[in-house]
Structure formats: structure tokens, C-alpha cells
Fold each of these.
Amino acid sequence: MFDKCIELLRSRGVELEDIAECVVYLQQKHHPDVTIEEILPTVESIVRKREVQHAILTGIALDIGAERNELFDRELCAILNTDYTLYGIDEVLAYGICNLYGSIALTNFGYIDREKPCIIGRLNSHDSTQCNCFLDDIVGAIAAAAASKIAHGHSSEVKS
Ligand code: MG
């Protein structure tokens, strides 16, 4: 399942390194010297979780269904293909990932969703025929979850 998710993300233009770059962006303030290579194992550990894999599969399946106009409802296809502003279910699916990593992940997700750095901005640029309605939020949520996991790791270091 992990390999399938990595392959699926890659086929949609997302490498784990791209997600790690978003985590570096989130960590800049607290850890200015952190590198993509240091972050990568944490990103990988997030994608190894079953709930995260299910969110990846579900979100990308809906994106692909929409861009092929294969979802049973034409209006729903149009909503996803245009990334209609008042449609928020893509974010709700992403919350499912954030919820596994606590409130810091949710706060990070809100921030990254507004700023749209790195790959998230590219996925949002609407200059391809690929539907990224769910994918951009999934990528943001994985990055937010990884940043939260790192933050919690550091806080336990401080305590002990
Ligand atoms: Mg979206």
C-alpha cells in the first residue's frame, strides 16, 4: 500500500521531497538550518500510516474521476475540476490526516493552505488539465502532520 501511494503521488506530480520542502518552509522560523534530507524520514513515516494512505487513495481517485468526467454527477465533476471555492470537502478529507497529529497539525494546515508554498502553489496554479482539488490539501496535510510530529519530538527533548 505504501509503494502504491508513492507511485500514485508521483504519477500526479508529487514526490516526497516536494512535501518535505513544504515542511522545511513550515519549520524555517523554529529550525532555520533544517534540510529536506533531514525531514524526509518523517514525511515517509506519515505516509506509512494506513489512515493517511486511505486519504491519499480516496482523494486522488476523486480527482482522477473528475478530470475524466467519470463521476456519476456532472455538477460534482465541474465543482472539483474548477476547485469551486465553496466546496470544502477536500479540506475535510485532509483534516482526517491532521487529526492524527493533534492541534499543531491543524494550525499548520490552516497556515500552509493560506500561504500555498512550493508544490502546493504549483498544484493550485490551474495551468494543467489535471484536477488537483483533493491532492493539494492532502499534500498540505501530510506536510502539516510532519511538522507537528517534529515539533512534538523537539518538545519532548526539551522536557527530558
Ligand atoms: Mg483543494
Amino acid sequence: MSIYSSIVHVALQTPSHSGVGDLLSYASEHPLPPGTLVRVPLGTREVLGVVWDADEAPGELPDGATLRPVAGVLDGVAPLDLPWRRLVAFAARYYQRALGEVALAALPPQLRDLRPEQLARRLRRPVKGAADTSDTIENIALTAEQESARVQIAAAKGPFLLFGSTGSGKTEVYLRCAQEMLEADPTAQALVMVPEINLTPQLEERFVGRFAPRFGPGAVVSLHSGMTNPQRLKSWLAAHSGSARIVLGTRMAVFASLPGLKLIVVDEEHDPSYKQQEGARYSARDLAIWRGREQGAKVILGSATPSLESWYASRPPAADDPEGGRYLRLHMPSRIGAGALARVRRVDMNQQPRRTVFSAPLLQAITERVARGEQSMVLLNRRGYAPVLHCVDCGWKSDCPHCSAHQVFHKTDRTLRCHHCGYTVRVPFHCPTCGSPDIHPMGKGTEQLEEQLGALLSEVLRPDRTPARIARIDADTTKAKGALEAQLAQVHSGEVDVLVGTQMIAKGHDFRRITLVAAVQPDGALFSSDFRAAERLFALLMQAAGRAGRDAAYMAAQGTQCEMWVQSFHPKHAVYEALRTHDYPAFAAQQLKEREEAAMPPFAYQALVRADARTQDVAQRFLTAVTAAAHAAGLPGLDVVTLFPPVPLTIQRVANVERAQMLMESSSRAALQRFLAAWQPVLQTTRSQPEHKGLIRWLVDVDPLAI
Ligand code: ADP
Ligand code: ZN
Ligand code: ZN
């Protein structure tokens, strides 16, 4: 006999591939509504779970049932609502992961560790003041282009693609749309996503400055992985309870519980960081579209260089395409204050002396700007001093012993470091193979650029007669907490004349005094095997160009023009031609034509299965076996899904793990989904067969970004 009145089915994080089903059942004394957070026993531990559904089991349990009881209920937190649960369930299904894994990953980590009493104590802490309803704050006047976008967003259902040049005032449009939405409905909430944490501090100030006076000091909260666990929990609870009106976050914020969600903004929607690269490999942008539709929230995607997927989805109706795309495209071509976009200067490196890093005309241009007190930015997407060290006598190269990659030479701390597995050694004085002292760096990284520029500009003076100052920002200089903020502040305050860095400096920052941006070696991406490389390079260069000349008044006062320099061995390449005219639509049209002819995204849908093993042979054998099994079983969807043969990854071995993958492609997303769902159990069973013993893991990546 049992006193339990109901059986609840709980989503929880089970060890992956443990064979435990998606939901586990527990007995509860009281009926618990779906979405309730509970603590339940799992083996010898007690873990957090989310009640997914319940059976009324009046009276007693079936004979011999060994249901364990729920250990505790986090009743200080309202149950997660149906839209949130549906989002999680959809993401798990679509990206081929366990429901419990996605549900738990979507919750703030600290929630997992708190017992109900601890949480109750935390919830009792006072929340910051309530909304202040002074409605006398002036709005800044929108430009005609901004106003037109605002009106269309207010009038139509969306989703919207806000296609606006860098500095056209997209952020102002987001702010205004959010404000109107929140003023019209006191329970409404807005979610604003940005690609990376390093962009958030500046944006956060802007949002707090705008919304705290209107909706109270606690109205804006952030959600990103740079926060401490207690901060994240606090933001999460504020969003979940509705006290936060605006959540500003990175991709993880797409899973925030927002009962009043009415608006989702995805800023820089083309940015690859919206795609999660481990666990459930979700696209926060794509989930935002789904969530907006399900929860009745408007969705605005914004970019100066939209992804080709979003660009295609927002194509206007045409004679041979009367429907057009699903999104509404809104165009803001002009920069605020009639500022001009950077003039693009291409340097043909075939005409320069061999091994030139900074061509003479570029160096001259930087020198002149330093002398006038203007700032320049030099972009190189490779950190360290040199990508490899080599021996002149025997040809030895600084290969990582654990990866199929070179160890990068870092001069500052005299190390060779593998950027894939982290393996680090001291720089040797002699060649480890032949003992020769004649070992040299090959190629350039940001450290070397900084050093060379220092030497080249050593005689150059600023207007105040002090020497030019050079700074570098990349993943190495910003490891310490607060380092990036401090370094950016130096740039903003004008302490730096030339900023050298990786793509970290190219995106989002609202630099006011940068008038020249240079990409010194951008060619690498032109001939990559990844079909998205050109698209990414174009976006990066356009973003980088957008850092120059952002303050029209400053430009006018200086009497200067902003410039984007590109040093290239292929200066006439289509990517640089389109860059020269800032013509994203032309670039997109050309790329889409190629994609359509080759039946590639957005004209086809893709997924990858990756296998990791001790040997490449085992990894590929697994992929071959699951392919054969799929055909043997005649799985649904297979007639319209193409399975390509397994291949090693470009970087085949990382940390002594061999990696292989195979691509699946279909013109039908639904068919690909049907196939993947049916295939999942085949992958599971094949994996446990003895002949695949050396397999470490396999994973599925739906809509992969890099192939
Ligand atoms: P984007 O997000 O498109 O790069 P921002 O919204 O950051 O552009 O705007 C660029 C700059 O112009 C910012 O400094 C912003 O404060 C300013 N700005 C935006 N809209 C207006 C406006 N309507 N009037 C005056 N300044 C504006
Ligand atoms: Zn040697
Ligand atoms: Zn390595």
C-alpha cells in the first residue's frame, strides 16, 4: 500500500548514453503540476529535475513497483510554463539530444545545487525597487529610415530581418520597439541577444540607461556565461518571475524562462557564435524564430551582413516567386549623421616586395593618422607570435604531439602552445631533432604584428609630441577577468593610437575615433574547403570596416575620411569587389546563385554525424556501419536524404582522439528530421556492438555551420 497520490515523470540530466530513458518516474504525495522543479534521487545522488507530466495514481502503486519518492519540491519557484517546456522539447527533438539534458542545461547551474530551504532563503532577499512610472523621459528623434522600420515592425507580424549598415542605428530601433512593447503591456518582456560577451558591457549600459529610469532599476538583467553562478541565478529568477522586463544575453538566453515574452531581438544574427558547439548543438537564432512563433512574440533579426539563410528567407515577392520569403526585410542603408562608410583600399601584394607584412602605402596611411591624433585598427585572425616554429637544417616543425596541428609560438612567455588541446612546452633553444640552433618562426600572428608595428612607428609622434602607442587585444591579452573591459576603455579614452587584434576587435564596438581599419592577411579564407568561408570573411571585413568613422561629427571636425584597407594577393576576388562597393545584396546574390546550383544551404538541409575514436579506422568503421544499418533497415526519409561517405575532419586528431564525420543532405528538412529520429536508436545499438569497442563518442550536428 502506498500513500502516494500521483506518479510524476521527471526530466533530469542522466549520464549520456547510459540507456536511461528520457523521463524517470517518481512517486509524489501531492499532485505536482508540469513544470515544477523538484529534487529527486538518482542512484545514490539527489538531483534537480523538472516535472514533465503526471499520472493520477490514486490509492496505491502497482504490485512490486519500486518507485522512489520525490525528495523535495522547489516550491518557491513557479512551475516552468508550457511554452518553455515546448521550446525545450522541440530543441531536444530537433537537435537529437535527450530531453532532460536540454532541460537541465537550460536552467541556471546553481539551481542544481540548492536545496529547497537554501533557495527559499535566497528568494526572501529583497528585490530592487519597483517600476518607476515617470513617463516624462524624452525619446531621441528617429531618422526617417529608423522610423519606417519601427512602423513596419509595429504593424506586421514578422519575423523581421533588419538589414542596416553598420552605424545605421539598428540598436536604437531595438530599444524603441522594446520600449513601446513594454509600455503598452505591464507584463510584457523582451529578450535581446547579442553574439559575444565582450560586446555586452557597452550595450548593457545603453539598455540600463534607457530602461531603468522608465521601468525601474531591476528591469534589465543579463544572462551570459561570463557571470558568476549566483548572478546568473538571480537574473534567471528575475526573468522567470516577470520582474525583469528585458533580458540581455548571449545564445544561452534563448532558453530563459520568460512568461511575458513579446519581443525577441537577435543582433548580428549572422554571427557563428549563436550556434552552440557542444552538447545540444542548437542555433539560438533559429530557436528564436521558433519560439517567437510559438509564444506569439515578434522576432527581429538584425545585421549589416545577414546570413544567407536569413537573406534568402526574407526575399521579396517576385514574378516567378509570388510568395517571397517568410521574413519581412527592412532596409536601413544610411549611417547616422550622414557619416560615410569606409572607402575600401586594396593593396595588391603581388606588387610588394616578398615577405611584406605592412605595405608602404598602408604604413604611410597609419602614420598620417597617428600624427593627426586619429586611431587605426589592424586585424589579423591569428593570435600568438607565429603559427609554427621550424628548423632550417632538418625541416623540423613544432607539431603538437597530440594533435594534427602545429604548436603556436608565443614569444611573450616563450612557449609553444597547441591551440587545440592546450599542450604547452618551453620554446627549445635547439632543434629537438637535429640540435641545430637555427630555428625560426614561420608566418605571422598578432604578437608579431604588434612588435613589428612598434618598430615601424617608433619615430612617429602624436599631436602632443609623444610616441605612438600600440596595443593588442586578443584571447591571450584578455584572459584575466576585467582585462578586456580595461583594454577597451583605453581605446575609447584615446590612450591607444593603433589597435592590433583578432576578430574580437572587429565586431560590435562603438569606437568613436577609429578612422582606419586594415586587414593585413585576409586571403586564407578565400580558398577554404568550407563553403561558408567566403560568407564569413565578407561579414568579418564589413563588420571591421564598420568600426571606422562611426562618429560623423568627429570625422567632419577632423576633416578626414575613413578607410578600410585590404592587403591581398587576389585583390580582384569577388569578396573584395563586393566589399569595395559595400554591396552586400550583390555579394549575397552571387553566393546564393552558387549555392542553388550546388544544392547547398539554404537550398538544402544538412546534418553531420561525427565519431571520435582512438584510431581513424574505428571512427570511420562506425560511420560506415551505421550507414549500412540505415540502408538495411530502410529508414523513413532515406529516399530523399543523401548520406555521404565518412571522411576525417580537417584537423583529424585532437588530444590523441581521431575524428571522422559524415554529411547528410536533403532538400526536405522534414525528411531529414524523420530520418535522424529513426536513426538515433540505430546509432545507439551499433555503438554498443563489440566491434566498435574503440569508439569514444558520436554526436549529431543538425544544421552544422562548419563542414
Ligand atoms: P548599429 O546598431 O546599426 O551599428 P547604433 O544603434 O549603435 O547602430 O547607432 C550608431 C550611433 O548612432 C550610436 O552612437 C547611436 O547612439 C547613434 N544614434 C542612433 N540612432 C540615432 C538617432 N536617431 N539620432 C541620433 N543618434 C543616433
Ligand atoms: Zn633540425
Ligand atoms: Zn594539441
Amino acid sequence: MKLERVLQFAKTLIEKTVVPGDIVVDATLGNGHDTLFLANLVGDEGKVYGFDIQEQAVLNSQARLEEHHVVHRAVLFQEGHEKLQQFIPLFEHGKIKAAIFNLGYLPGSDKAIVTKPDTTILAIEQLLNMMTPEAIIVLVIYHGHPEGAIEKDQLMEYVKQLDQKEARVLLYQFLNQQNDPPFIVAIEKN
Ligand code: SAM
């Protein structure tokens, strides 16, 4: 058996949860790789709501979706994910099936623009209110840079205290690798 690598495992979790027609969230658009992955899963009847604070990230993601002829499956906002409850239309609240956060900074871009624990946690709390039972939030946590290490500590503290009646929290991490590779925390709403 070959253990699934971290980034592949994030996709597997989402693939096992999302079916055509679902409503999902890409909380950190970046270059739109995850957005495209999600758009392919939800099909023409579903919708991906995407967020990033950088204009370039929104433009890059839009271009990637256009290139693959699935741009109509997504609605992208140049807004922080901590505002997702405000920006995702009311009629979708309660219907969200999955969300992915690829934390940290956008490779090849300004490394000073990073996700922050406070806003990440606000977004998770909003999602937990807006998701269906058995929906999943996948956090890919990059802790090899200074802000990432701080974000990791605060996020771990936060997810560990989530009430087990509300959600189950999974950690997927290789423990003996150099250079602090990313790991996954997945939150399944009960
Ligand atoms: N998923 C992306 C992809 O497939 O290319 C990579 C995401 S990158 C590691 C992290 C992104 O989070 C950056 O583009 C950054 O601008 C964005 N970001 C930082 N703070 C944010 C916030 N509060 N809300 C939404 N996005 C944010």
C-alpha cells in the first residue's frame, strides 16, 4: 500500500464528499487549481463560491476556469473568506457541502500576503453554520514559514476544542519529514 500524499489526500476527501449539483467553497483561490478541481466535481448544476483578497488571484482563477470552459460553475469574490456568510447568497445557506482552504501565501506572489488565524477561524465558524450535515472543511496547513507556524498553532488550538457533538476533526500528517511539509486538518460537520 502506498500512503496517499497530503495534497492528494485533500482531494480524495473532497471527491468522496462532493457530487454533481453540490454547492462548495474555495476559500483561498490563489491560482485557481482547487477552484477548477471543485468546478469539475460540481458539474453544470452545482456552484463553487471562491474568495481571495488579491485581485490577481481572482483573475488567474477566472482565466483557468475559462480555459477549461467551466467559468459558469463559479462565482468569485475579491473578498476575505471571513466575509463568506455575507457574500454567499442567502438561498445557498445551509446547502454547502464542502470547503477547501489552502493556507499560507501564493507561490510566486507577494509572500507578505498570507492567511491569518483570526480570519481563517471566522470563516470556519461561518461555514459550520452554513453547511449540510456530513459536509467537510479541508484545511491544508503550510507551517514552514513564520506566520504559518503561528497560524498552525492557533488553528490546532481552535479545532481541538470544537464540540464533538458538532463536528469531528481529523489530522493527516507525515511525522518524520524535513522542512515542515504541509498537513491536513479535516472538519466533518455532524
Ligand atoms: N488554492 C490556491 C491554488 O490552487 O492555487 C492556492 C492558495 S494560496 C496558498 C493562499 C491564498 O490565500 C493567497 O492567494 C492569498 O491571497 C489568499 N488569502 C490570504 N488571506 C485571505 C483571506 N482572508 N481570504 C481569502 N483569501 C485569502
Amino acid sequence: MSDIIQLLPDAIANQIAAGEVVQRPASALKELLENAVDAGATQVQVVVKESGKQLIQVIDNGKGMSATDARMSFERHATSKIRSSADLFSIRTFGFRGEALASIAAVAQVELKTRQAESELGTLIQIEGSEVKKQEPFAGNIGTSVSMKNLFFNVPARRNFLKSNPVEMRHIVDEFQRVALSYSEIGFTLFQQDLEVYSLTPGKLSHRIVGIFGKNYQGQLVPCEELTPHVNVKGYIGKPENAKKTRGEQFFFVNNRFIKSSYLNHAVSSAFEGLLQPDQHPFYVLFLEIDPSHIDINVHPTKTEIKFDDERTIYAVIRSAVKQALGAHHVVPSLDFSLDVNFNEKWDKDPEKKAQVDREYSYKSFNTPEFKQASTSGWEKLFEGTQQGTRNINRATPSDETEVLTFESRANPDEATEFIPRPTETESTGATFQVELSYVVAQMSAGFLIIDQQTAHERILYERYLRQLKLAQGTSQQCLFPPTINLGPSDFALVMDIMPELHSLGFMVSEFGKDTVLIQGVPADIQVKNEKELFEGLLEQYKHFKSELSLDTRENLARSLARKSSLKKGQKMNSQEMETLVGQLFACQTPNYGMGGNKTFVKLDLSSIHSFFGK
Ligand code: ADP
Ligand code: MG
């Protein structure tokens, strides 16, 4: 048999390699921006059309390339940045793989114009699908301009996989922000079609942060610095009271390279411990400087992951740097009184809340007339819309005295179901009360249920919101004073993207000028004090879940809104509210578990109680 193994032609090899480097327009932008920075540019201009699907052009005033280098730059593994494998351990530049231009040219139509200061004429190269179409001298500015047109023009399958324009634009803005943050001494502009999105003048980091995230950040930044022999940490953290507004913008740069690390992120959040509510995220932009021989940036092709040889030390240094920054700027004391740092502490100060157990003996069943009257207003609104579900609850009828606890659904006696308890309805034995304002204890005829109120309520709301999203039946309440929210380009793009889902839930949101939305209505079943805060919190939660769990839009929105609008621990409930909670929980499809998989309740049945006493 003849030999059948052949080397792939370069164009195909490049196209395959491109899959790793260029997943979407934003990844190409990242590479092009990094090349501009590596070339020593002081001014970088980005032009984007159709969210990069049609065009991404990066123009720099860096050192340019010779005619030969210009041609070479499109070869795979062609780089001016490392020469030997030893250099891999002392990388200070962004690039080093020499793959980016080759990959981009394999899957797009690229035009490169470049000129070095010392030569009068520069070079123009047009290349499409790895094929050079034109190379000629050209007269133009010093520096380099790379235009990438019609990304994936020759790989329709991948082009079809690109997301909507708002989504791709959000990725582009994210990449742009990261590079712009890490080089505040370089001027950057970003144009989308003909609109200027950013124009960032060279300057200090604090100036750059304000330029990117808006004037609100002025006065909210706390400098943070810790210099050790092993690692230097420098940058800014946001004041805790501003955490909500910052929408979780969090940036780590290692030797100026943006990285993601949940481990190091934890170091920062743990330094903020006690200063933030669980759903708040501190703002930070922190730069770590470390000898390149102690890190390996080669872990991940798109290079946002990094390996440190001593991660624990770095964790400790970051934590201490942030703690010190918070302390040195008196951020901590000023907050002790304004935040519910610790529920126990608060109770000690507040005698009304000191009682750790709230007893409520007047048990009423869900369908008593009192309950129905009460259910129309106030806190009860939280539970509206799931009433129809309560009919599925198995109820003991008064004649059921002998029946202790049924585990099966009465409607389908044959169907084996999971344990779904039902509270008894006998006034004499019924008692529902709160423990630590966190758990609801409901009496059943053969023991107790201990219900985690927040987890349970999240489950109830989550199922409700999923239903509303599916049927697009969410109803709105109008805002008295419709707020406008300036979101910044990236969040704005996100909101545009999930607009239909937001409407299904009952948010009446509309575009209101550049990067701004108007909130005219919010879901009717949520009691809102501050619509702006609700909406921003929802977005924040959404983004958090998206990065943590990569959920689909509906699932994520349902979870986010449930998390945002659920009742929290520490919230006092009256007996009706507790009973409604119990009833609605057990009307859920999956009453046993919260959104995150935690148990919603535990059962303390008679046999366990007996066993406590050795009976
Ligand atoms: P890498 O950046 O990993 O070296 P690239 O494919 O991104 O690989 O670029 C290949 C080479 O082309 C770089 O090493 C550099 O010498 C040159 N180059 C790319 N972009 C520019 C630019 N904007 N200005 C000057 N030189 C550039
Ligand atoms: Mg590069």
C-alpha cells in the first residue's frame, strides 16, 4: 500500500491554528493591540465596523517594519520577540508566539501598511486566506496599520457562529479596556462605525480609570501598594460604599498582561470581608510585577491564565495590600455604622431584634380567609403568581387524624415522588417561627421542617421567573420617576442583547441615548425601593453567573433576578409570610434544593427527636 500521510498545506495549517488564536473579532483586536504596544506606540487608534465582523483596524505610531519583516510577519511562528527557548522565561512583551498575524491572515482579508522612521517609503501588503495578493511600496505615516476585513470570509461555519453585534461589541470593548488600562501612558481611541466610543489621553492610571469607567469613579479610588522582594502590587481599589455602582469591574495585570484568576480574586474579596454585602463586588485594578522567571504565561493559548510558582505568597501579599489600603484610608471605620456587616453584632446593638427566636403560635392555614385578604398587599406581593401552584400541595383533611405524614402525591397515588412534606393544618399543633431571622421552622404532625428562608425563596422566585420567561408573561409596575442609567459601552451592549428577556420579565427598558437606558417599569411582583439599584444589581449578578457558570440567557436571568429580589437572611417575617413561603416552596417543581444545589430545608422527624434522648 502506498504512503498516505502528507503535510498539510500552510494555508490549511494556518487556518487550523487560527482556531486557537482568533475565536471572534475581539480576540483579533487583542492581538493587534498588543502588537501595537509591543512596537512601542504612544498613540493607538482602533476603528471597528459591524462589531468587528466587517472591519477591525488598528493604527499605531510604533516602530514599524522593514519590507522583509512585513512579509515575514505573516509566517507562522515568525516573531521578533524571542530567539531561544530561554527567552520564554524572561518574556516582557505581549506577543511571543508569532502566530497572531499568520492566523488572522488565514481567516480574513488583511491589509498591512507599515513604515519605519528611517525609511522614506513603507510597505503595503494585502493578504487573504494566507495568500499574498499584493505587496508594494507605499508612502504614509510612520508606524503600522493593520486592517482585518470580513473575518471568517472563507470559513462560513465559523462566521455563522459569531454572536449578535451587541455581544461581539461587548467583547471588543472588554479587550480594549484591558489593554487601555494596562498602558495608561499610551493614548487610545476607539471608533465604532463613525462614532467615537473612547478617546483616552495618555496619563496616570487614576486618570485612565476615570476615562474608561466614568466620572463617578473620581474620589472613589483608593491607592493600593505593597512592595516585597518577590512581588510588587500597585493599583487602585474602589471604596466599599461604591461597590454596587462599580458592577464588579475587576482587573489583574501581571507584568502588564491582563489575567483572570479566581484564586487571586478571592484574595481581594477576603480583604474586603465584612465591608460588602454578599452580592457586592469590589472594584479593583491591580498590577503585579514579578520576575518573569517565576511565572508561566504559556498555560493557555489566549493567555489570560497564568501559573505562578508561589501562588500562596502572592495571595498573601495581595490580601495584605488591599487590607492596608482599606485601613490606611480610613475606609473601614467610616463603614461600621452604615452596613450590616454582621447580623449578630447588629442584633446586640438593637434590643428589638435581640430575640433570636421569633415565636408565632397562631398558625393559620394557607387558604383561610385571613390569608386571602392579606395576600394582596405589601410583602405578600413577593409571592403573587405562584398561588396556582399551592393546589398541588397535599393537605391533610380534618378526618385524616390517623395519617401522620404522606410521602406520596394524593393526586397520583401510584407515582413515587421524593419526600415532599406538608405542614399540618391543625391549629393546635401548628407553629411557625424564625430562628436567627434566617430559618423558618414549621411544625408538621411528625416533627419539624427547618427551612433556609433565603435559599427557599430564591427557589420559588427562580421557578417563577423561568416560567415568565418561557411564556413572556411578566407584568410591570410603572416607575414613578423613571431613572436613566448610564451603563458604559460594555454593559449597554449586554442590555441590548438581553432586551427581549428583560421585557418578558416585566422590565420596561428602552435605549436612551449613548450607552444609556431608561427604566420605565420593573416586574410587578418585586417591591423596589430603588429601581436603579435593582437593575444594576441584576446586571451585576447576571455577569457574575455568566462568567462563573456560563448559563444560557434565560436561566441566568431567572437566577439573577431571583438572587437579587429574594428575601434575605436577617429579614423578619410574620406568620402568614412564613406559611406562604412554606406553601410555595412545596409547590415548586424541585422544592428540595436551592438554585445553587444547597438544601432548602431539613426535616427533623419524630424518630430523630426520639433518638436524641436514646429512645
Ligand atoms: P508575536 O507578536 O507573537 O511576535 P505576531 O504574529 O503578532 O506575533 O507578529 C509577528 C511579528 O510582526 C512581531 O514579532 C513583530 O516583529 C511584527 N509586528 C506585528 N505587528 C506589528 C506592529 N504593529 N508594529 C511593528 N511590528 C509588528
Ligand atoms: Mg503579537
